[in-house]
Amino acid sequence: MALKWTDSEDIAAALLEKMPDQDPLAVRFTDLRRWVCQLEGFDDDPKACNEAKLEAIQMAWVDQRED
After folding, report:
1. 3, 30, 54, 67: least CB-packed within 10 angstroms?
2. 38 within domain boundaries
3. Within-domain flag for 25
């Protein structure tokens, strides 16, 4: 499955699996963008990223981490 910027829940799950001890609220958006682009299965234009998409990923990551 190819991940796109709009797949915030799936991206958050992949980040949680890859970095279970990372606090998503302590991550800079520049790092978050880089980590998403490096995820296996990520297949979207890196330039299509914006603050709203990164924030959606970050909040989904927070929600999944709390479950």
Report:
1. 67
2. yes
3. yes
pLDDT beyond 80 at 45: yes
User: Can you say whether the dihedral through the CA atoms of 58, 62, 65, 67 is positive or negative?
Assistant: negative
For the beta carbon of residue 51, count every other beta carbon within 10 angstroms: 9
Q: What sign results for the dihedral spanned by CA atoms 43, 46, 47, 53?
A: positive
Comparing CA positions, the residue from 65, 58, 7, 64 lying closest to residue 29 is 58
Q: How many domains does the chain have?
A: 1
Give the separation between CA 20 and CA 6, rounded to whole angstroms. Answer: 22
Model-wide pTM > 0.85: yes
